[in-house]
Amino acid sequence: MKLLLIGYGKMGQAIAAQATARGHQIAGIVDPTHPGVQITDFTPETADVAIEFTHPDAAFGNVRACLQQGIPVVCGSTGWLHHFQEAQALSQETGTPLFYASNYSVGVNLFFHFNEYIAAKMHQFGGYDVQVREIHHTQKVDQPSGTALTAAEGILRHFPAKTTWRNEATDAANELAVLSERTGAVVGTHIVTYHSTADTIELKHEAHTRDGFVQGALLAAEWLPGRQGVFGMKDLLGL
């Protein structure tokens, strides 16, 4: 495949290396480190799919440009979901597929799946409070992380005692605390904790390297072309 990389930070560079090892070509790199290269320089004939990992303030503009160019796009940037309905509408209007995930790790997406199952079961029995904690490296821009938000949303759907989340500790019974820490070079750790007077139950995912994220993004890029609609990791993994 011919891959257009949008963003050439740590993730973009890791994706380029693994993509080449898998036999793909890098059609182009859109990033300040490659001045003069624009998304509008590419078409479906010159790029089979774009992989976008940038910043919250740039992500939607990049996704929009890809869809307008007719280039299928796999987006891993977080912090832009207030524009997601616009992106869905544009995908439908242009007939160009969009794949979005807050986290591309297969392990993390199994974590999401188990998180929802556990939330539903814990609600049935009562007596537990729940919180989400996420830890990332100091260069992580958005807070809370997209992964933490996805976990929180899964809990809210299946644990009716919680009706909203707050990015700090809270004593309000209906609020789900989502605690964020930024320290060192931590790749990403997410912990869901249920606590009662009798015991504590935790569901934890800890990433050791970026390899899982990169592999998932490339799986999505290989899966997406030829489809129509908006997709996520549940579609890719059949969850």
How would you portray this structure in words?
This protein is of the alpha/beta class. It is built from 7 helices and 11 strands. Helix content is 37%, strand content 24%. The strands form 2 sheets. A 6-stranded parallel sheet has the order 2-1-3-4-5-11, with helices on both faces. A 5-stranded mixed sheet has the order 7-8-6-9-10, covered by helices on one side. It is elongated.
What is the beta-strand fraction? 15-25%
Instruction: Outline the biggest β-sheet.
Output: 6 strands, parallel
Mean model confidence by pLDDT = 95
Note the run of SSEs as H and E.
EHEEHEHEHEHEEEEHEH
Q: Number of DSSP strands? A: 11
Unreliable spans:
none
What helical percentage do the residues reach?
A: 25-40%
Radius of gyration: 19 Å
Strands of the largest sheet, in order across it?
Answer: 2-1-3-4-5-11
Question: What would you call the structural class?
Answer: alpha/beta
How would you summarize the topology of this molecule?
Elements: E1 2-6, H1 10-21, E2 25-30, E3 49-52, H2 56-69, E4 73-75, H3 84-94, E5 98-100, H4 106-125, E6 129-136, H5 146-158, E7 164-166, E8 175-182, E9 188-195, E10 200-207, H6 211-223, E11 230-231, H7 233-237
Parallel strand pairs: 1-2, 1-3, 3-4, 4-5, 5-11, 6-8, 7-8
Antiparallel strand pairs: 6-9, 9-10
Protein name: 4-hydroxy-tetrahydrodipicolinate reductase
Domain Dihydrodipicolinate reductase N-terminal: 1-104
EC number: 1.17.1.8
